[in-house]
Amino acid sequence: MGPVAPLPPGCYEETAAAIGSAMSERFCDVGMRVNGEDVRERVEARRTLVDFLREDLGLTGTHVGCEQGVCGACTVLVDGAVVRGCLMLAVQCDGTQVDTIEGLSDSGAIADLQAAFQRRNALQCGFCTPGMLIGAQDLLDGGGMPSRETIREHLSGNYCRCTGYQAIVDAIESIALTRAGKAG
Ligand code: FES
Ligand code: FES
Q1: Which ligand is closest in space to the CA of residue 54?
Q2: Do 15 and 94 have their domain in common?
Q3: Which ligand is nearest to the CA of 65?
Q4: Has residue 44 been placed in a domain?
Q5: How far is CA 65 from the centre of its chain?
Q6: Which 8-state DSSP code applies to residue 60?
Q7: Residue 43 C-alpha to ligand 2 middle, in angstroms?
Q8: Quick one: pLDDT at residue 130?
Q9: What gap in Å lies between CA 58 and CA 51, rounded to an integer?
Q10: Which of 46, 64, 97, 117 is the most buried (most CB within 10 A)?
Q11: What's the CATH code of the domain at 144?
């Protein structure tokens, strides 16, 4: 076996016996700002961001679907950028600002989009909806009046198994128009 790389600062290894497991496990201390609140936790080095949010912080509005970056159910913002929570490790988010659907909803930032989704029946089971709303907000934050094609393209990484997308695009388009001051 070759030389073992040293653990980064803030990380350490627990033996299998110490944690009552079949294998030893690496843990790291991480700190981040989640929905405006400072969080410090000790996490397994291999823990994904979405598992950390859901299971350690109880923020279950972020969903887990494919776990391979395809469906968009786990979409969150890290330092303002849209990311797939299933493709990032919690330790990679050390020192960052993470915003989830709970934070966006509580702040009122997406209240108009949420109302439009409800009004236009843009959700059925709701599994994809948090990711859709974050994706839509990301698009509309860019300003301007996106075309229906642009809306579809922007959400092409967010799968909905229920609605057929028409109502989702309708809802987002209606809010794009409202925010652009073109509709009441
Ligand atoms: Fe992350 Fe599907 S669960 S993209
Ligand atoms: Fe069910 Fe989109 S509303 S997956």
Answers
A1: 1
A2: yes
A3: 1
A4: yes
A5: 12
A6: T
A7: 31
A8: 98
A9: 9
A10: 117
A11: 1.10.150.120
**pLDDT beyond 70 at 164:** yes
Final residue belonging to a domain, choices 98, 119, 135: 98
pTM for the complete prediction? 0.92
- Considering the domain architecture, whether residues 116 and 164 belong to the same structural domain is answered as yes
Torsion of CA 65, 103, 122, 143, to 10 degrees: -110
Q: d(Cα 174, Cα 184) in Å, to the nearest integer?
A: 9
Q: What is the pLDDT of residues 47-96, one digit of tens each?
A: 999 999 999 999 999 999 999 999 999 999 999 999 999 999 999 999 99
Q: Strand 97-99 and strand 25-34: pairing? A: parallel
Looking at the fold, whether 119 and 146 belong to one and the same domain comes out as yes
Residue whose pair of structure tokens reads 């009122």 in the numeric block: 108
Pocket of ligand 1 contains residue 64 by CB under 6 Å: yes
CATH classification of the domain holding 30 = 3.10.20.30
Please, which pLDDT band fits residue 116 given cuts at 50, 70 and 90?
Answer: very high
Residue bearing the CA closest to ligand 2, atom 2 = 160
Has residue 175 been placed in a domain? yes
Please work out, in degrees rounded to the nearest 5, the angle formed at the alpha carbon of residue 173 by the alpha carbons of 171 and 178.
95
Q: Ligand 1, closest atom to CA 69?
A: 4
Ligand 2 site, residue 30, Cβ cutoff 6 A: no
Residue 65 CA to ligand 2 center (angstroms) comes to 11
Q: Domain boundary at 70, 98, 126, which?
A: 98
Whether 164 lines ligand 2, by a CB cut-off of 6 Å, is no
The confidence score (pLDDT) of residue 2 equals 62
Question: What's the gap in Å between 86 CA and the centre of ligand 1?
Answer: 6
**Contact 126 CB / ligand 2 (< 6 Å):** yes
Please tell me the total count of domains within the chain. Answer: 2
